[in-house]
């Protein structure tokens, strides 16, 4: 018997071909697939919706709600911080409460806590579990094979990387063929190969089948249960949940599109979403605005070639009007890391004079403290450049080529350093 627990090993990663030994995500990786990482309680609510066994639990956002939830699920219960990162227990974000006073004390201490850069806004109050065994189970989208991949191990409760490193044979992996039924025979063989206890192999196999169905039904690119526990009375229960949903499929899931992880929200991405802009924060100091995804991607590459680090991807879209340019500049300049901004516009449907009007209007509405570098080419570019020249905006530089603009913005963003990465 391993005692009363309510948590499990939890880690935070983006979906991909494998959940371990992944390289650092590139800009292209980040832009290729937009995803939504669900919090533990959100994943468990989806599990329950699809009939998977989970402990009884309640969501709480305040101390009073947490105490009320604890009294509903009964004592002892577990007060769990809801953030999309691992090592919550070590940080003090998972506590067992034996009574209402302890529930209040733990909830008050955990709400507002910072765990590895994530602020706790939500709690999950869950009935404590008596654990006999801990397993690991997951179904992920293997993009390289274009198939779902089922993984199972009898070594649960630890990071999957540790399992793979200590004993690779302990982590059983099988692709789920899209044109074949993933039934009891296939799932049962995985459970047997993973050396799951004989008396619960059928339950574990059934859960693997259900995880596959949840992945398909909810457009999940990753579902991980760690640990998947066997209770003292030999019931298999999902004690934790990590789930990632493909953001491109949210139009099929109105309920999921309303889910929010306030601990992981980026203020610039939220602002851009509210303004209807396509924006991805990248972490550098060169703000980038272009029209069209292809041009934006090319601009990111050229800025990197010039020795700069893009702060964002912002596609103003085709046919952008002055108002959209004002909104875009407001989003980009609200990022305190941005030290210079590059406009790279190729006019077609988007008219360069409209972009110029937007820049001029933004300079009147926003206190822009960073230098702007502008490259306009295409429809009405001469008119746009003339408008900018007449406006006399401080700290605005016009460049004729994309490479010239990239080199200039990198120079302005990093005073004292030559473009191209030199000292």
What's the β-strand tally?
20
Shape: elongated
Q: From the helix content, strand content and strand pairing, which structural class follows?
A: alpha+beta
Counting DSSP H or I runs of 4 or more residues, the number of helices is: 14
Low-confidence spans: 8-33
Mean pLDDT: 88
Percentage of residues assigned to helices: 25-40%
Could you tell me the radius of gyration in angstroms? 25 Å
Strand content: 25-35%
Question: Could you state the oligomeric state of the chains shown?
Answer: single chain
Largest sheet: 8 strands, antiparallel
What does this protein look like?
This protein is α+β, with helices and mostly antiparallel strands and 423 residues long. The protein is 35% helix and 25% strand. It contains 14 helices and 20 strands. The protein has helices spanning 27-32, 40-49, 63-73, 100-110, 160-166, 184-193, 201-218, 254-257, 267-274, 293-305, 322-333, 352-365, 381-391, 402-413, and strands at 3-5, 35-38, 57-60, 77-81, 94-97, 114-115, 118-119, 123-127, 129-142, 147-153, 171-176, 220-231, 236-238, 242-246, 278-281, 286-290, 312-315, 340-347, 372-378, 396-398. Strands 1, 2, 9, 10, 11, 12, 13 and 14 form an 8-stranded antiparallel sheet that branches. Strands 3-8-4-5 form a 4-stranded antiparallel sheet, covered by helices on one side. Strands 16-18-19-20 form a 4-stranded parallel sheet, sandwiched between helices. Strand 18, helix 12 and strand 19 (372-378) form a beta-alpha-beta unit. The longest helix has 18 residues, at 201-218. The chain starts with a strand and ends in a 10-residue tail after the last helix. Mean pLDDT is 88; it is low at 8-33.
